[in-house]
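Narrative of activities, Objective 1.

The group set out to show that a structural description can be obtained from nothing but a protein's sequence at a throughput compatible with the screening campaign. Below is one input-output pair from the validation batch, recorded exactly as produced.
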Amino acid sequence: MSRPLGAVPDAVAAVVAATVQRELLALGVDLPERVALVVGAAAVADVRRDGWHISSPITVDPC
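Output recorded for this entry:
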């Protein structure tokens, strides 16, 4: 069994989005969720553009 294609990058983008949103909220800036998600997706795109791969290293054989 393996994770669906895109699951790990989507999770990384969501974590980046939540972190950015939380940190800005602590500074008194209420960043809309849709904007935070764009920031998260851009972070993943930047990492990939720099040659890094975001994917699951874990593949489980069901046998």
